[in-house]
């Protein structure tokens, strides 16, 4: 099986004080755009976990920092700008405390579409190189959910990798489960693993290159904690009990950054219950690249894949090359992405209107004061 390179940060920073945290030339350049213009002495640090009004840091020692008023105000206006696990930040000393003065430019950002009334997006993890999606062999697989996770991962700019976990519990169904997973993972590698027996762990561990940052993604009960402990060769995460309905209990309630023995880093986030695909549509396009390639062969460029003659998509369905259910899921996620994009645009328009009104009030007040009444 061919593998994609999941170590996008190829710099040799093993001797840098922050090298063990993923420091590279891109991060250094981002820091240098912020530090020289500050009136305070700034230091780079990486966020290990996000808390309400503060963050946990490594620099490389463990620290806690509060958000500066400017960073806090920006986060209140747009939640997606708040420091999150994996972020690189510039901090300064303020008395006995550290303050986050700036969040450095991000790369490889896992963003979940906003679901609240304000439609603000939620940044789940930042500065990631790869996304390890866990799908339990004994629970499905749920291909619709897997396609949503893949859409989320592809849109992040990181490389998705799928782990079919708990292989020992699938019994004779394992080949069928893996084959079904592979039918919906266009462009992403699939590893069959078992934290209990050790199956597939060495091959997966070989991909965890020093300096690379991975994020674990999957529902509760998918075996994320057990897999990470097995890869680490130690207990780095608590594992939860399995309920009577075979779903796991949530063992992760906050985001955290976990260093691995070989030098890779893992970001673990709470089990994601609701997966709304990003509005830009790029993740959906990558996830369903097979259908996109078929659509390119349609006779008409604006083919809607309905009753038009020469539709390559419908021909593939008729010939049994494309599952009708996968085509239906493609339609559904494309519509969802378009809807989410429109919601985001509406929020931006509303925020601009508020800003214009605020500026107009300020302008009128300034003119009144100038006139002296």
TrEMBL record:
Kindly state the subunit structure of this protein: Monomer. Associates with 30S ribosomal subunit, binds 16S rRNA.
Entry's cofactor comment: Binds 1 zinc ion per subunit.
Q: Where is the CP-type G domain?
A: 117-275
Q: Which of this chain's residues are annotated to bind GTP?
A: 218-226
The positions making up the signal sequence are none
Chief location of this protein?
A: cytoplasm
Per the entry, what this protein does is: One of several proteins that assist in the late maturation steps of the functional core of the 30S ribosomal subunit. Helps release RbfA from mature subunits. May play a role in the assembly of ribosomal proteins into the subunit. Circularly permuted GTPase that catalyzes slow GTP hydrolysis, GTPase activity is stimulated by the 30S ribosomal subunit.
Domain (EngC GTPase) spans: 126-273
Localization = Cytoplasm
Sequence similarity: Belongs to the TRAFAC class YlqF/YawG GTPase family. RsgA subfamily.
Q: Where does Zn(2+) bind?
A: 298, 303, 305, 311
Q: Which Pfam families has this protein been placed in?
A: RsgA_GTPase
Question: What keywords are assigned to this protein?
Answer: Cytoplasm, GTP-binding, Hydrolase, Metal-binding, Nucleotide-binding, Ribosome biogenesis, RNA-binding, rRNA-binding, Zinc
Give the transmembrane region(s).
Answer: none
Q: Which cofactor does it need?
A: Zn(2+)
Q: What class of enzyme is it?
A: hydrolase
Q: Which PROSITE patterns match?
A: ENGC_GTPASE (PS50936), G_CP (PS51721)
Name the chain's protein. Answer: Small ribosomal subunit biogenesis GTPase RsgA
């Amino acid at each position: 099986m061919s593998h994609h390179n999941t170590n996008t940060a190829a710099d040799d920073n093993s001797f840098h004080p922050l090298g063990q945290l993923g420091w590279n030339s891109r991060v250094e350049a981002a820091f240098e755009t912020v530090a020289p213009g500050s009136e305070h002495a700034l230091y780079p640090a990486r966020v290990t976990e996000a808390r309400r009004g503060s963050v946990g840091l490594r620099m490389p020692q463990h620290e806690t920092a509060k958000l500066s008023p400017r960073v806090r105000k920006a986060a209140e206006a747009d939640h997606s700008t708040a420091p999150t696990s994996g972020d690189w930040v510039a901090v300064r000393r303020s008395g006995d405390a550290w303050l986050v003065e700036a969040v450095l430019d991000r790369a490889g950002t896992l963003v979940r579409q906003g679901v609240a009334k304000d439609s603000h997006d939620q940044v789940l993890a930042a500065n990631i190189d790869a996304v390890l999606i866990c799908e339990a062999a004994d629970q499905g697989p749920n291909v619709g959910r897997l396609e949503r996770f893949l859409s989320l991962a592809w849109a992040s700019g990181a490389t998705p990798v799928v782990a079919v976990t708990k292989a020992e519990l699938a019994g004779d169904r394992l080949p069928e489960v893996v084959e079904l997973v592979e039918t919906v993972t266009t462009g992403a590698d699939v590893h069959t693993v078992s934290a209990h027996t050790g199956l597939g762990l060495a091959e997966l561990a070989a991909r965890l290159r020093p300096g690379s940052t991975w994020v674990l993604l999957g529902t509760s009960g998918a075996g994320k904690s057990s897999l990470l402990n097995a890869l680490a060769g130690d207990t780095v995460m608590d594992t939860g009990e399995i309920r009577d309905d075979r779903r796991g209990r949530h063992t992760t309630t906050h985001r955290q950054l976990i260093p691995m023995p070989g030098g890779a880093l893992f970001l673990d986030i709470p089990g994601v219950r609701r997966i709304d695909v990003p509005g830009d549509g790029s993740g959906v396009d990558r996830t369903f690249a097979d259908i996109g390639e078929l659509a390119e062969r349609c006779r008409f460029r604006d083919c809607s894949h309905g009753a038009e003659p020469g539709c390559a998509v419908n021909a593939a369905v008729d010939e049994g090359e494309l599952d009708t259910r996968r085509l239906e899921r493609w339609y559904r996620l494309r519509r969802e992405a378009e809807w989410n994009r429109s919601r985001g645009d509406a929020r931006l328009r509303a925020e601009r209107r508020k800003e214009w009104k605020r500026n107009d009030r300020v302008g009128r007040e300034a003119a009144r004061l100038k006139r002296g009444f």
